[in-house]
Write a structure and sequence with these properties.
about 500 residues; 12 helices; four-stranded mixed beta sheet; eight-stranded mixed beta sheet; alpha/beta; about 25% helix
């Protein structure tokens, strides 16, 4: 029997939340001339005594609703762009549309941002992202993200769960990372087409710097745009939507002896969190949790897999996010057929709808806070980590002195370090905070710090390869010491 929730939490109230925007969805006037909500996007007030909506106003709302209608068809570049711009025009108070770059053929890489503060980062509000269509011929994710956008904007201020989610999360949605590959796929196929690659024939999910070996692939414009995007935002959680299987796959995709690859599994320091994240999606999906895969030869217990255990992958985006972006990302394989017929899209949306929402809520796991100096000013580039979970690129505070650590409920020691000063340790009991839409808040104030630490960056080099070489000469019990030595070398 399928679990109704993950870790005992009830499923969210993520139904349609009432009538969709449109003529049938308009609310009636209340006494005194106050309207409860118009098409789910806010409230309207007229002068006292008004009890009926004028016909011309009804017509305007009908036209607006029809203009934003989204069908279950494949949307090519011009249609996708027009739809996103329409959404931005209709919901300007909580959406923001921008392009993070261009593809090889010059198509915009559109991102729609949703939230209370859509245009900029707000202290304390975590950043989340969904990216789809990285392989141009894997198309289901592209379309269900458009329907996710539709669901979020029409549910905001009408559905209490979605309203709290958007008020406390900044959500970035990129329907297509490889628009050229999608447009190049002239004949849909369930298995393989050249549209998988970008215009230069490069696989974008083999194109990122790799933490385990030198990746000699030439970084593509689409990859560079995403790398810059990750650098410029404080992303905490992410998922990358693919097709060709039905499973939630998690870090690491590559590995070596340091991460346990000799045993067929490449374990990250946050393996327990990644397993939880993958199960959150699979258990809230209509069938992924069954783990049956796409044929009898391949099964995935609970509908999840460690990436390396499935197959080794160099230059993948989810490992890059985790190592260099301080962002936990999993890969969601959503369909056995990579490019299924359009008439199946509505079922794919229904199968994934609850899982998509539940997964976003996990951005509020764990602990967050600010590091400040003796004057209360934010301290950027401070290292904040949970003891026993050393990242090979230590997680650092952003320009606002903020940190976000995804952690499961439990007791942890959080270590904050400003280079050149004594570390500060705090023991904390972390509850399950996803239902409150806010991680536990834990701030650090360094009374002896009065200046900003120098900016530090982690080199885009195969750091785990260096760690493996260093570890080969010492006993396994000294691995932590070796890791500290490597980090010291890096940050000098």
């Amino acid at each position: 029997m399928k679990p109704a929730s993950v870790r005992g939490r009830a499923r969210p109230a993520t139904g349609d939340g009432g009538p969709r925007p449109g003529c049938s969805g308009l609310q009636s006037w209340k006494s005194g001339g106050t309207m409860r909500a118009v098409a789910g996007v806010g409230a309207a007030v007229v002068g006292g005594g008004g009890r009926h909506l004028l016909p011309d106003v009804v017509g305007i709302f009908c036209l607006v609703s029809l203009a934003a209608a989204l069908d279950f068809e494949y949307h090519h570049a011009e249609e996708l762009e027009a739809y996103l711009k329409r959404i931005r025009t209709m919901y300007p108070s909580f959406t923001h549309l921008h392009s993070i770059g261009r593809s090889v053929e010059g198509r915009d890489l559109w991102v729609l941002v949703l939230g209370r503060f859509p245009t900029h980062h707000k202290i304390g509000i975590p950043e989340f992202k969904y990216v789809a269509n990285m392989h141009g011929d894997e198309t289901v994710g592209r379309e269900i993200l458009l329907h996710l956008i539709d669901f979020l904007v029409t549910s905001y201020r009408r559905d209490p769960v979605i309203t709290r989610l958007l008020n406390n999360t900044r959500i970035h949605i990129m329907p297509t990372m490889n628009p050229d590959g999608f447009e190049a796929t002239k004949v849909p196929d369930c298995y393989y087409t050249r549209g998988r690659y970008n215009k230069n024939g490069e696989d974008l999910n083999r194109n990122f710097p790799d933490a385990f070996e030198n990746n000699n692939a030439s970084i593509q414009p689409e990859t560079r745009a995403v790398m810059n995007w990750i650098k410029n935002e404080t992303f905490v959680l992410s998922a990358n939507l693919h097709g060709g299987a039905l499973v939630a796959s998690y870090t690491f995709d590559n590995g070596n002896s340091v991460t346990g690859s000799l045993k067929g599994y490449s374990r990250s320091p946050d393996d327990d969190v990644f397993i939880h994240l993958a199960k959150t999606y699979s258990f809230n999906h209509a069938s992924m949790y069954k783990g049956t895969g796409c044929d009898n030869r391949q099964t995935f217990p609970d509908g999840i897999t460690n990436g390396y255990s499935w197959y080794q992958l160099e230059g993948g985006m989810q490992d890059y996010n985790y190592v260099w972006g301080q962002c936990f990302e999993i890969t969601l394989e959503l369909s056995c057929c990579k490019y299924p017929p359009a008439e199946q899209l509505e079922k794919f949306w229904r199968d994934n709808k609850v899982a998509l929402i539940e997964y976003i809520k996990q951005v509020h796991l764990g602990v967050k806070g600010q590091v400040t100096d003796k004057n209360g000013n934010p301290v950027p580039n401070a290292i904040v980590e949970a003891e026993g979970r050393p990242h090979i690129c230590p997680y650092r505070t952003n320009e606002q002195g903020e940190y976000f650590l995804l952690l499961l409920p439990g007791t942890y020691v959080i270590n904050a370090t400003v280079p050149g000063f004594k570390s500060m340790l705090k023991t904390v009991e972390i509850p399950d905070t996803t239902g409150n839409f806010s991680a536990l808040k834990l701030d650090f104030s360094f009374s002896e710090v009065s200046s900003r630490p120098r900016a530090a960056s982690c080199p885009k080099a195969p750091l785990y390869q260096e760690l493996e070489r260093a570890s080969a000469a010492v006993k396994p019990t000294l691995h932590i010491l070796v890791l500290m030595t490597v980090m010291l070398i890096i940050f000098k």
